[in-house]
Amino acid sequence: MIFTSRFRALALAATATLAAVCGAASADELADIKAAGVINVGIFPDFPPFSSVATDMSTIGYDVDVATGIAKALGVKLHLVPVNGQNRIAFLNDKRIDMLMSVGYSDERAKAIGFAEAYAPYYIAVIGPQAAKIEGPADLAGKAIAVNQGTLEDSSLTKAAPESATIRRFPNYSAVIQAFITGQTDLMAVGNNVGAQVLAKQTALQPEEKFQLMSSPSHIAVRKDETAMIGAVNAAVQAMIDDGSLNAASETWLKTPLKVENLKPAE
Questions:
Q1: Which domain range does residue 195 map to?
Q2: Are residues 44 and 68 in the same domain?
Q3: What is the CB neighbour count within 10 angstroms for residue 191?
Q4: Which residues are within 8 A (CB) of 98 and not within 5 positions of it... i.e. 6 or more apart?
Q5: How many domains does the chain fold into?
Q6: In angstroms, what CA-CA distances link 255 with 40, 121, 203, 235?
Q7: Residues facing residue 60 across a β-bridge
Q8: pLDDT for 134-150, tens place per residue?
Q9: pLDDT digits (tens, 9 = 90+) for 84-111
Q10: Of 18, 138, 207, 211, which residue is 20 to 30 A from 98 by alpha carbon distance?
Q11: Axis-axis angle for helices 227-242, 29-36 (nearest 10)
Q12: pLDDT averages per 10-residue partition of the chain, 267 residues
């Protein structure tokens, strides 16, 4: 009888522990965010026109408008967290942020994080002075190219550049642009919208897009296997497409109407 009582007590304790573990496993990120009443969103602080710091020190841009729309759809407050190319995936998986803006899709990344549908067209271009004759990857031989370390631009350039090219990696886009416009590098590899800012301002240098390394629409990333969260983000973005607010953001920040057909998975 004593043995039976002890066995039953142990069995009940094990069952309770298992139930607690299963309950924790079944809890999803979306429920946690709604319970907390706030969503922490990782965003580049220096990635105009997607995101940049305004004169009043607030963060503005296309990504901010989209993140604001998603937070509103979820009924929570928005908290922006600055990230960079080196720490952003770790921040997401370490739960320091709940969602990450401006992420290019790749099969390798999809092994570690989850992706919602694309929300902005994006391609990576090599930019150089008008006088420089650069028509394709082979012309990068012997050239120094600036790129933001740890980003899709970095991996795309590394894959395409010949061995004699010198890839200079910097911790943020401001440093990449500065290296290029001051002549520390011959070229730079950046997203089309970062490049557009340089093309518009550097009239003396007369920079221009030389060729595209790849086309990859911008996605919103969440933690792996968070299907409820992905569904909620997709629904929020689709609502912004339907009510015209995503197009308004595109015209304001990207200076072009939104073309939904450009929001396709990267090839």
A1: 123-215
A2: yes
A3: 23
A4: 29, 33, 39, 40, 41, 222, 223, 229
A5: 2
A6: 27, 12, 19, 25
A7: 52
A8: 999 999 999 999 999 99
A9: 988 999 999 999 999 999 998 889 999 9
A10: 18
A11: 70
A12: 46 43 57 97 91 93 97 98 94 97 91 95 89 96 97 94 98 93 95 73 81 88 96 97 96 83 66
Domain with residue 205: its CATH number is 3.40.190.10
Question: What is the β-pairing status of strands 77-82 and 38-43?
Answer: parallel
* Residue 53 buriedness (CB in 10 A; 0-12 / 13-18 / 19+): middle
Claim to verify: residue 114 and residue 223 sit in the same structural domain: yes
Rg for the chain, CA atoms, rounded: 23
Closest-CA residue to 74 (of 246, 202, 228) = 228
User: Are the C-beta atoms of 126 and 187 separated by less than 8 Å?
Assistant: yes
What is the C-alpha end-to-end distance of the chain, expressed in Å? 67
User: What is the spatial distance between Cα 59 and Cα 51, in angstroms, rounded to a whole number?
Assistant: 6
Reduced to 3 states (helix: H, G, I; strand: E, B; else coil), residue 182 is coil
Supply 193's token pair. 């919208």
Burial of 134 per CB tally in 10 Å (0-12, 13-18, 19+)? buried
150: which 2 tokens?
A: 């740890």
> What is the 3-state secondary structure of 80-141?
EEECCCCCHHHHHHCCCCCEEEEEECCHHHHCCEEEEEEEECCEEEEEEECCCCCCCHHHHC
Residue 43: closest CA among 221, 193, 199 = 221
Token pair listed for 109: 């990344």
SS3 of residue 218 by DSSP: strand
Pairing of strands 144-148, 166-170: parallel
Residue 115 shares a structural domain with residue 131: no
